[in-house]
């Protein structure tokens, strides 16, 4: 007689659950290298990636896996222009991107990911302009990978992204993406600006500063028509950080949108005391007397275009 029959089956111990989970993740990772099994493996791993401990090192260190993920990415380049990306193609490559985001997020693989220049494989996706859902999903998932990199405050990450011209690609999405894509792209620019290297880079030339300022200004104008407190929060934080640079602060006295100075967004920010405080600080920073032209190039005013 089974002594356990009256008590039902004994649940597996946490240790055995973890080991079986690890075994299944290892099997799925192995299947990524098999073209016939890859699509299902991509789907299962992307769905369960939060459940698998140390999936990122496993993906990075297993033979041929990163090459298989990059193969998925490169294979859809031909359908980017002219835009012929199907929903099925978009879903499949976004599952591959979700696994790369896992690698980008993990402290043990983040710098390996950067040193292999893998983010550059995503830039063609950020350069697309089609507003169809498959393309929007592709851009949003690609931005998620970059967002995972900048979430950790690391000057080395910021320096890498600046060297690869990420800001113009983010500005493009901030102008034409969906609200969610605009929010993630603005968050990336915000995180770049919050690093001293990023702020200095953006404010080194008038062209860079006004490229960012023009897009932020256009977004503020658009938000007056269709408010989004989440997006507005990131825009205000970008402006506030720009005001920490003396030349940029001087320029903002002339080009900060009036809608941020008046009560246009008061109802939008009613439930957000943090952003209200940022906006008050921004207005305080740019509201003083004009600073004299700085040595070594002066202010931006001579290049300002109204």
Q: Please state the CA-atom Rg, rounded to the nearest Å.
A: 23 Å
Q: In the residues, how many domains can be counted?
A: 2
Q: Count of helical segments?
A: 17
CATH class of the largest domain: Mainly Alpha
DSSP helix fraction = 55-70%
Mean pLDDT over the residues: 89
Q: Assign the CATH topology of the largest domain.
A: Leucine-rich Repeat Variant
What is the 3D form? Answer: elongated
Q: Describe the main β-sheet briefly.
A: none
Uncertain segments: 1-11, 288-297, 302-306
Question: Could you name the CATH homologous superfamily of the largest domain?
Answer: Leucine-rich Repeat Variant
Please tally the β strands and state the result: 0
Element order, helices and strands?
A: HHHHHHHHHHHHHHHHH
How much β-strand is present in the residues?
under 5%
CATH architectural name of the largest domain:
Alpha Horseshoe
The class by helix and strand makeup works out as mainly alpha
> What distance lies between the first and last C-alpha atoms, to the nearest angstrom?
89 Å
Protein name: Cell differentiation RCD1-like protein
Region (Disordered): 1-22
Family: Belongs to the CNOT9 family.
GO biological process, one term: mRNA catabolic process
